[in-house]
Amino acid sequence: MRTADTLAGWGALVLLALAGCKLPGKPKAGPEVLRPEEVLGFEMLYGANCAGCHGAHGQNGGAMNLANPEYQALIDDASMRDVIAKGEKRTLMPAFAQENGGQLTDRQIDALVAGIRASWRKENVFGGETPPPYKATHAGDVAKGKVVYAIACARCHGVSAQEPGNAGSIQDGSFLALINGQMLRTTVIAGRPDIGEPDWRGHIPGRAMTDDEVTDVSAWLMAQRPQNPGQPYPNVNAAEKPATPVNH
Ligand code: HEC
Ligand code: HEC
Question: Which of 10, 183, 229, 247 is the most buried (most CB within 10 A)?
């Protein structure tokens, strides 16, 4: 037993001595050490920064199906770069550019855009048809959007948050609290083949949705967004007042 203890003790000492040159705090020299801001390989950049939300292969994640070729055809390089650098307001998409508090350099963001394009972009994905533009060109009409919802969404997503339909509610307050109008627009136009959401041609039986319809339905859904997401009561102040006793 003693011998084993002594051996273990010596072993630890030898290991410490060997590790001495790599103790934390000691500056590492040599070209073999890649600093995080020097990584330019797409797989590594995407895996470390994006896969957690957008899925290992650009699909089946909580956020946008980046590997969808229709999505790749819809969004231009400048818009994609902008989203990655600045994030998406009112969603969980972080800003990655260093000047916006993120950790990626301009070169790394360029490498991501180039890698995403090289991996997932395809030619002629719309079969000659033209989808509505990536960005809305005007504000939507909320009242008209309600009617569009009934003809384009209700058969799969249900008529109300209480009746969610087969594809689940998109009127649910907690869901709406996590998305913005662009997310709805992108999802409706390019679809999400990874989870079964059709593209703009597959919502209304017999015809494609128009640009105005996409704009209006997104505006109506955004207008359903709760003022205080996560609060069970619409009026927080009222909810904070002590309940009035009724029986005495
Ligand atoms: C914490 C989760 C999260 C991480 C990490 C993340 N994203 Fe996002 N991303 C989102 C969400 C949420 C949205 C907005 C809603 C949506 O489109 O699903 C979004 C939106 C986007 C969009 C725009 C989608 C549209 O509507 O056109 C792009 C492009 C994008 N992300 C790329 C990336 C890239 C590239 C990375 C890695 C550098 C990344 N994201 C990391 C959550 C994330
Ligand atoms: C033919 C059926 C169908 C129609 C019509 C339809 N959807 Fe969907 N949609 C789906 C399915 C299936 C999913 C995936 C549901 C899931 O993952 O639980 C989905 C998902 C979504 C998502 C993403 C939800 C998420 O979890 O990220 C959004 C946003 C969405 N639909 C919006 C719409 C809007 C807006 C309309 C009307 C313009 C619409 N959908 C019409 C079938 C449909």
Answer: 183
Q: What distance in angstroms lies between residue 93's CA and the mean position of ligand 1's atoms?
A: 5
In this structure, are residues 62 and 73 in contact, taking their beta carbons and an 8 Å threshold?
A: no
Q: Is 98 exposed, middle or buried (0-12, 13-18, 19+ CB in 10 A)?
A: middle
pLDDT tier, 33 (very low <50, low <70, confident <90, very high otherwise): confident
148 or 36, which is more confident? 148
Calculate how far, in angstroms, residue 80's C-alpha sits from the geometric centre of ligand 1.
Answer: 10
Tens-digit pLDDT profile for residues 188-244: 999 999 999 999 999 999 999 999 999 999 999 999 998 877 666 555 455 454 445
Ligand nearest to the CA of 166: 2
Does the beta carbon of 146 sit less than 6 angstroms from any atom of ligand 2?
Answer: no
Among the listed residues 72, 100, 87, the one whose alpha carbon sits nearest the alpha carbon of residue 186: 72
CA 226, CA 232: separation in Å to the nearest integer?
10
